[in-house]
Amino acid sequence: MEKIISLAKRRGFIYQGSEIYGGLAGTWDYGPLGVALKNNVKALWWQMFVEEREDMYGVDAAILMNKGVWQSSGHVGGFSDPLVECAKCHHRFRADQLADTKKCPDCGGAFGEVRQFNMMFKTHVGAAEDDAAVSYLRPETAQGMFVNFKNIVDSFHPALPFGLAQIGKAFRNEIAPRDFIFRAREFEQMEIEYFVRPNDWERFFEEFRRLMWQWVEAIGLRRENVHELEVPAEDRAHYSKRTIDFEFDYPFGRKELYGLAYRTDFDLSAHQKGSATSLEYFDEGSKERFVPHVIEPSLGVDRTILAILTNAYTEDELGGEPRSFLKLSPTIAPVTVAVFPLLKNKPPLVEKAREVYAMLREAKKTASNNIRIAFDDNGNIGKRYRRQDEIGTPWCVTVDFQTLEDDTVTVRDRDTGNQTRVKIDELTKTIFR
Ligand code: ATP
């Protein structure tokens, strides 16, 4: 884990939030390569779960919502974790994550009573700081979709089953943020609320279960590191009648990566009551009116990024030298291909390399949007290969003296370090596969 955190910082993927002020626990800032990786993951998700389907509707709801939303959804009353505090050192822990709730693991002191701690961040909207102005930062993106159910039905008249999809920030005042970006206080989710007829829920639960495995494969995680856990009734969230957690073997243990839940009609019915607005669906075929039931695949972006980094981090030996690198799939790597001149101070090489770079960027416009090309002439060639390996770039193209004679370049494969000579004309065919 230390190696991954240090690579992420050194190479500009992820920094501690507010670092120069000593940080703010549970917050993380993504640097240029982290943003690129995260954007690629989110774009792939959007493509697979929204664009490639006819039954999905994207929304981007406000993070601040009327407090009535959180009262109806049960979050004001019940979105809490059990907290214990040490009487001696005053460190706080999540009781369900401790082996022994009698003694403090930090100082051996005695714990007080276990109490419920609500994890929502409370804030005030507008100039008044009274109770009427209270709002919360959303602890899940889901509610932004439930409260827009009626809008989507009224605008688009979708036939059941159909889903709403959203990517966005969520906030939880975690008692003990830890394990890098795994448990943060501010994080991002990619969620779908899929509305079905009450009797159809099992079928669509299975469909999303399969889709989630396809997703795991699409981002390049090894199947054997992902495990389903049927969550027992007593551990399920208040709204769920069935939940499967998808767990990942992180360096600190097997922990939840994603959740797939059958939320029944809990949320729509609760909002129907709380808002006094009908959220029933009218089925033209059967002429029935009913509140649809919901299947929810919930994916954390940051836990995905951590799983991807863990999965990709590799150490080997190349040319007698130890190296560490990220074996990222070309679909999500921040840089797909890096172009270099062999030497920085030889103008004909630099010019030619710039030409190759421009040609690839031009070709990308028609060939594929899913390619990211970088130009790199920093330091010597060995250092550049090391840097590109460490950020997970699958291919490096080098312009050398032979290029000036015969218009061929070398293409180096990240995983093997093997270099092959390719004609510039054929470069796009080799790379844009
Ligand atoms: P945990 O039991 O680990 O606290 P949870 O069961 O409360 O997680 P859900 O409410 O199911 O999590 O949230 C859906 C998804 O959001 C999770 O599967 C995870 O990917 C992500 N997620 C939840 N909490 C956090 C967090 N504090 N930091 C980063 N991602 C999170």
Describe this structure as you would to a colleague.
The protein has 433 residues and is of the alpha+beta class. Helix content is 32%, strand content 30%. It has 13 helices and 24 strands. The strands form seven sheets. A seven-stranded mixed β-sheet has the order 3-10-11-17-14-13-12. A five-stranded mixed β-sheet has the order 21-20-22-23-24, with helices on both faces. A three-stranded antiparallel β-sheet has the order 4-9-8. β5 (80-85) and β6 (92-94) form a beta hairpin. α2 (32-51) crosses α9. The radius of gyration is 25 Å and the shape is globular. The model has no long low-confidence stretch (mean pLDDT 95). Adenosine-5'-triphosphate (ATP) binds at residues 172, 174, 183-184, 187, 189, 256-259, 298, 300, 302-303. The site of adenosine-5'-triphosphate has 14 residues, from β11, β14, β17 and α9.
List keywords for this structure.
24 strands; binds adenosine-5'-triphosphate; about 425 residues; 7-stranded mixed beta sheet; alpha+beta; 5-stranded mixed beta sheet
Short characterization:
The protein is α+β, with helices and mostly antiparallel strands.
**Which small compounds were modeled alongside the protein?**
adenosine-5'-triphosphate
How many beta-strand segments?
24
Main sheet makeup: 7 strands, mixed
Strand order of the largest sheet: 3-10-11-17-14-13-12
Instruction: Assign an overall shape.
Output: globular
Strand content range: 25-35%
- The tally of helices reads 13
**How would you classify the helix and strand content by structural class?**
alpha+beta
Mean pLDDT: 95
Distance between the termini: 33 Å
User: Which radius of gyration do the C-alpha atoms yield?
Assistant: 25 Å
Overall helicity: 25-40%
Low-confidence spans: pLDDT under 50, at least 5 residues? none
